[in-house]
Amino acid sequence: MLKVLTSSCLQNRFHAVTTAFTPQVRRGTQSNTPLLQVLGSLRSSNRRVPYLYQRFFCTDGSEPKSEAAPEAKQAEGESEASAIVPTVFRPEDCLTVVALPLPHRPLFPGFYMPIYVKDPKVLAALVESRKRQAPYAGAFLIKGEQGTDNTNVDTEKNIYEFKGKDLFNRLQEVGTLAQITSIQGDQVILIGHRRIRMTEVVSEEPLTVKVDHLKEQPYNKDDDVLKATSFEVLSTLRDVLKTSSLWKDHVQTYIQHIGDFNYARLADFGAAISGANKVQCQHVLEELDVHKRLQLTLEIVKKEMEISKIQESIAKAIEEKISGEQRRYLLNEQLKAIKKELGLESDDKTALSAKFRERLEPNKGKIPEHVMQVIEEELTKLQLLEASSSEFNVTRNYLDWLTALPWGSYSDENFDVLQAEKVLDEDHYGLTDVKERILEFIAVGKLRGSSQGKIICLSGPPGVGKTSIGRSIARALNRKFYRFSVGGLSDVAEIKGHRRTYIGAMPGKMVQCLKSVGTANPLVLIDEIDKLGRGHAGDPASAMLELLDPEQNANFLDHYLDVPIDLSKVLFVCTANVVEMIPGPLLDRMEVITIAGYITDEKMHIARDYLEKSTRETCGIKPEQVEVTDAALLALIENYCREAGVRNLQKQIEKIYRKIALKLVRKDGEIEPQNAVVDEVKAESVHLSEEIKSEEETQAGAESAEGSNDDKSCENVTEAEAPVNQMQKSTDEDIHLQDTHETEKATESEASRTVDKVVVDSPNLADYVGKPVFHAERIYDMTPVGVVMGLAWTSMGGSTLYIETSLVEQGEGKGALNVTGQLGDVMKESAQIAHTVGRIILQEKEPGNQFFANTKLHLHVPAGATPKDGPSAGCTMITSLLSLAMKKPVKKDLAMTGEVTLTGKILPIGGVKEKAIAARRSGVKTIIFPSANRRDFDELAPNVKEGLDVHFVDDYKQIFDLAFDSQNT
């Protein structure tokens, strides 16, 4: 009979329920079976505890009677969950039910389970069945994967994706007919009644199946074996109850709500409340033989008993460990108190002071007097403060930083110029000016006997090796290296530190650096100094002045420490992409060394000597397995890595070697693993040699004994001659000859596989790095009228750009100029100046030519999506305008750069090296530079200037003569 369930079932707690009928078991009658008496003896206190499982007791499994049902209807989503649902149906009348999947455990008769229904169609069908007074559904367990006991982690999520027959095939055949007691939202409360078996699909959405009702096989209640098995189950349950309070609550609740208790229910009870996996529980559900079902349950509860014993031993061990630690802690505290009373041990404050003084001992004579005075004052203050006060922690942290700094501790520097030059050459190719400056610094330090900190600023495009140069300098000087980036830094406290009064105050980066490296003369690399920010917390660029200025950093004052620190021995190396972005006062303290980038020849050497070698080692590839030809490297540099730096070149080389590694591994995977054949041949050769030695020991002498060693055997494998000679002497000559031939074949195949190498050449380069990224910067092979090539500088290096002028319309007084190409204000002004100067020069050369006065012109700089600005395109614009006005193309392979004044004077420009490299990359032979840039060009390396015809001009008339009068016919 069904019992009334209160709404607390949904909250996973049991409460006392009011029965709707008189229990069949009466006190003092013979129907009070021994099983119930034993279970009744297991009752303990009637306290209520939270119920942790999704399994509940609510019925004795008997069919509900229609006359006992109250005449009340239950609305959907009602707060009360009544187990008695008005119905005129009996469970055995339900031959077609909606199939509900259970992801974790089966539902046993006599128990109830909350489930969540995500499918709205299924939920609607369940609501409709309750309205029709047929509140029954079939609960079937989801099948697990073959060979496993559990389903996947995402089974509960994926099961809602199956519909119809797919869901039917995923469910167990045997399930439970369940009564729908309540539906609240998507939560459905099911009560198990009896076992059923699915036979066929009736409807697919929602899945409705025909079922057969299953009954237990008849059994003899007086069977001694059956009784003994049930008593053993009860005995095991009683043993488990001694260690598990949760099981006690299960038994109490079951006894309170179950009227008729028999062997079948005992088997279901033991399996349902156990922690067995779902496969074992499903076996119990499917078993109709009561005796076998009891045996299965007995196995399950025996396992539970073992688990309880293990749990009890673990809990006991942990409890002993915790109690032991607590006892040890109490004894230690008592011991400390006793020692303190006897004066045998000092307190924590004295121990802290001793620790701080111990730190100062190695450098005590080198610590400045004013610093030592502050430390002594703080140590005295520490003794007077209470350990629980906030001031105590502030003072302790302050002393921790003061005593951790390397006061007067310097590392031994390397003043060996030759050794330093060797180190710099090992790490970097080229960069002669940078290396020369470092060697000069070392030479001065050697002559003086000590080195004074300097500020070197390495400027250049990304990827040219500025940061790695800093590491190499530190290695060459034998200094500690510390790097921190100031890109986007907007808080002055990051450099100067916080005041100690602030919560979470910390010293600045330099104090952290000194504590980290442990010496007072490290090499500090300040990265991205041109990207310093400025926010509400001050201007970090101004704060950097005190840090970098050689006249001030001998007494650098950190806000946290509040004592002067000597940073004069620190070597500062800064890096920047654009020097113009560095504030003037800060730039004034630096010695700028420009790294313009690398030309093709330098990139070839860097790729061969540095990048390719390191990449090979990183990928685990041997040199004899790969060959990247010079043509492939050249094509890679010109078509894929045209940047000034080599970072992208390194990425592309790594990409090539990764694909080669994959190809080698795939090749080895098709045949036997590497060295497997050789090892087998070696073992066979050793075996044959031992046989021959045993047969001809008297004849072979020392040579055969020597030939039996492993090393000699390996030589026999590779040469394949000595084993043949020995085998010809044996009695089994044919067999040994056959083995030797197989050995030779295996060795030859291994040797051929070792000799095979992957060759990367220019034709197959695209297979490794894809299609070329860059194409020729030269748009025109023969420069047309009105088009002139100019040279530009960008933060990524130098590049060439064309300036084109086209005629729009002509007419009396229609002279005008339209400029496009996303030009900045400076270039727009240069275009106006070029238009004016062009008119002046045209009047001088051709007085009667009214081209500019009567022509509307359009001047365009290609690559309109790229912003362009700068004054150095002035002379190029004038030449483009004059070329169109006189209908004369400029000289072939000519590029120019320079700013022009209204009087035609040529002013100097920047980025000479970058522009020279860009000209060489585009195949330009003749370059026009301002005369003021002659010194910059002369300082360039010979390999950069090689093959270039450079003209230096002061006035635009000289450019006019070079561009038009000397043109090739």
TrEMBL record:
<dbReference type="InterPro" id="IPR003959">
    <property type="entry name" value="ATPase_AAA_core"/>
</dbReference>
<keyword id="KW-0547">Nucleotide-binding</keyword>
<feature type="region of interest" description="Disordered">
    <location>
        <begin position="688"/>
        <end position="754"/>
    </location>
</feature>
<dbReference type="InterPro" id="IPR015947">
    <property type="entry name" value="PUA-like_sf"/>
</dbReference>
<comment type="similarity">
    <text>Belongs to the peptidase S16 family.</text>
</comment>
<dbReference type="GO" id="GO:0070407">
    <property type="term" value="P:oxidation-dependent protein catabolic process"/>
</dbReference>
<dbReference type="Pfam" id="PF02190">
    <property type="entry name" value="LON_substr_bdg"/>
</dbReference>
<dbReference type="InterPro" id="IPR027503">
    <property type="entry name" value="Lonm_euk"/>
</dbReference>
<comment type="subunit">
    <text>Homohexamer or homoheptamer. Organized in a ring with a central cavity.</text>
</comment>
<comment type="function">
    <text>ATP-dependent serine protease that mediates the selective degradation of misfolded, unassembled or oxidatively damaged polypeptides as well as certain short-lived regulatory proteins in the mitochondrial matrix. May also have a chaperone function in the assembly of inner membrane protein complexes. Participates in the regulation of mitochondrial gene expression and in the maintenance of the integrity of the mitochondrial genome. Binds to mitochondrial DNA in a site-specific manner.</text>
</comment>
<protein>
    <recommendedName>
        <fullName>Lon protease homolog, mitochondrial</fullName>
        <ecNumber>3.4.21.53</ecNumber>
    </recommendedName>
</protein>
<keyword id="KW-0645">Protease</keyword>
<keyword id="KW-0238">DNA-binding</keyword>
<feature type="active site">
    <location>
        <position position="872"/>
    </location>
</feature>
<dbReference type="InterPro" id="IPR054594">
    <property type="entry name" value="Lon_lid"/>
</dbReference>
<feature type="binding site">
    <location>
        <begin position="460"/>
        <end position="467"/>
    </location>
    <ligand>
        <name>ATP</name>
    </ligand>
</feature>
<dbReference type="InterPro" id="IPR008268">
    <property type="entry name" value="Peptidase_S16_AS"/>
</dbReference>
<dbReference type="InterPro" id="IPR008269">
    <property type="entry name" value="Lon_proteolytic"/>
</dbReference>
<dbReference type="Pfam" id="PF00004">
    <property type="entry name" value="AAA"/>
</dbReference>
<keyword id="KW-0496">Mitochondrion</keyword>
<feature type="active site">
    <location>
        <position position="915"/>
    </location>
</feature>
<dbReference type="InterPro" id="IPR003111">
    <property type="entry name" value="Lon_prtase_N"/>
</dbReference>
<dbReference type="GO" id="GO:0005524">
    <property type="term" value="F:ATP binding"/>
</dbReference>
<keyword id="KW-0378">Hydrolase</keyword>
<dbReference type="GO" id="GO:0016887">
    <property type="term" value="F:ATP hydrolysis activity"/>
</dbReference>
<dbReference type="GO" id="GO:0034599">
    <property type="term" value="P:cellular response to oxidative stress"/>
</dbReference>
<dbReference type="GO" id="GO:0051131">
    <property type="term" value="P:chaperone-mediated protein complex assembly"/>
</dbReference>
<dbReference type="GO" id="GO:0006515">
    <property type="term" value="P:protein quality control for misfolded or incompletely synthesized proteins"/>
</dbReference>
<dbReference type="GO" id="GO:0007005">
    <property type="term" value="P:mitochondrion organization"/>
</dbReference>
<dbReference type="GO" id="GO:0003697">
    <property type="term" value="F:single-stranded DNA binding"/>
</dbReference>
<dbReference type="GO" id="GO:0005759">
    <property type="term" value="C:mitochondrial matrix"/>
</dbReference>
<dbReference type="Pfam" id="PF05362">
    <property type="entry name" value="Lon_C"/>
</dbReference>
<feature type="domain" description="Lon proteolytic">
    <location>
        <begin position="782"/>
        <end position="966"/>
    </location>
</feature>
<feature type="domain" description="Lon N-terminal">
    <location>
        <begin position="97"/>
        <end position="305"/>
    </location>
</feature>
<dbReference type="InterPro" id="IPR004815">
    <property type="entry name" value="Lon_bac/euk-typ"/>
</dbReference>
<dbReference type="InterPro" id="IPR027065">
    <property type="entry name" value="Lon_Prtase"/>
</dbReference>
<dbReference type="InterPro" id="IPR003593">
    <property type="entry name" value="AAA+_ATPase"/>
</dbReference>
<dbReference type="InterPro" id="IPR027417">
    <property type="entry name" value="P-loop_NTPase"/>
</dbReference>
<dbReference type="Pfam" id="PF22667">
    <property type="entry name" value="Lon_lid"/>
</dbReference>
<dbReference type="InterPro" id="IPR046336">
    <property type="entry name" value="Lon_prtase_N_sf"/>
</dbReference>
<dbReference type="InterPro" id="IPR020568">
    <property type="entry name" value="Ribosomal_Su5_D2-typ_SF"/>
</dbReference>
<dbReference type="GO" id="GO:0004176">
    <property type="term" value="F:ATP-dependent peptidase activity"/>
</dbReference>
